[in-house]
Amino acid sequence: MSASCCAPVSPGNNPRYRRVLWVALVVNAAMFGVELLAGWAAGSVALLADAIDFFGDAVNYGLSLAVLGMALATRAKAALFKAACMAAFGVFVLGRAAWSVRGGIVPEAMTMGVVATLALVANVAVAWLLYHYRSGDANMRSVWICSRNDAIGNVAVALAALGVLGTGTAWPDLMVAALMALLGITGAWAVGRQAWAELRGGSTTTAAAVEPGCCASHEHDGMHAHEN
Questions:
Q1: Which of 30, 83, 166, 170 would bridge with 192, disulfide CB 3.0–4.6 Å?
Q2: What is the total count of domains within the chain?
Q3: pTM exceeds 0.85
């Protein structure tokens, strides 16, 4: 999920990079709508959870483009808004999963599989567009890595569809949904903590350390390269 990574802010005014971000924004926003409608129609909570991922990416790209070049405080407030939205959708998915457990609704496996495959194609396409910028600064690299890792969620939903088809129960769908929702909530918490630290005037490097697997590692790479 992109929520677990820093917001994709380009350090310069690269027109080509801006165009790529716009394409990524449109693709993710469109897939958010597709998965939201398909998940609701098919009764799949896993699809709804994956829709959160697309929503987070779309908001990520949109806010990054909107506040590009603005003051740190403005970018931090935008990140807080994104974190709040992500957390809200995560809680919604958990609640929907709990309701499905009580209702005993078995999702439509075929719809799950088809939409998950479409989502995988969309994420791979976005990752391919961002591949050229994988060796840029920490933020540019994190955008590509986040997009690449989003495909994992799509594969998980496809596996959940196979599980539903094979078992005839909703448990594979609910388990994947709960896992993705929790990842979304923890990602929102990490982004919110970083943004709050920036608003309070804390060190961005210290705040980025909340996510050592994404942003902090890339900043360390950049510092090491500078020292050499």
A1: 83
A2: 1
A3: no
